[in-house]
Amino acid sequence: MNAIEILGLTKEYRGRRVVDALELSVPAGELFALLGVNGAGKSTTIKMLSCLVVPTEGDGLLMGRSIRTDSRRAKEVLAVSPQETAIASSLTVRENMELMAGIYGRSKGQVDQVTAQLGLKQWAKQRAKTLSGGWQRRLSIAMALVSQPEVLFLDEPTLGLDVLARRELWGVIRELKGHTTIILTTHYLEEAESLADRVGIMNQGRLRAVGTPEELKTLAGCVSFEDAFVALAGEEAAS
Length: 239
Hints:
The chain is α/β, with parallel strands linked by helices. It has helices at 42-49, 71-75, 93-104, 108-117, 133-145, 163-176, 189-195, 213-220, 225-233, 235-238; strands at residues 2-13, 16-27, 31-35, 57-62, 65-66, 78-81, 151-155, 181-185, 198-203, 206-211. The two termini are 34 Å apart.
């Protein structure tokens, strides 16, 4: 079963197409990394799929629910962990989690489960602003997961973290694979190569290539994933 179906998804701003007739299927439980240089259309795509921006044309289905004609129900199955760490810094870890649980009508048992799942139990009574950057990002993801989403959008989840904190968060994300369908955006190519089941590379609003990291290296005729990305995402690939 496909958790996400993208059907000719298009967005225009002032006559300029920033996302151009995107077509993509993402199976349930897959971690799909969406890559591209700045301005490629990644963020606009995520905003449309998370029902924050209305498409100009086309549609997207999240667990069969249209983001255009059934956005209320589509929102029920998705959650977003934004690039900016989305926490209430003056509240404790537990209070942040309970706040989100209250918004989504989830029980304290669900708070306990996700807090334990992401290793936050030891920090439950600590104010969020006193946590390190890595733990704040982990809390932000936990707050997205407390709603029990079937589709999770992770926007630059490790941006600004040091190497150790980034690797620790990779472990958290790996544990979610197979249980939650994840769309990951990142500028860390090693992150996408390590975590993603498949990768999509965007350029000028279009999806230029889709495949496993190994398939993309073969397609580009490159040994390294970084070289493959440069070859597939660059201006020459778009022409």
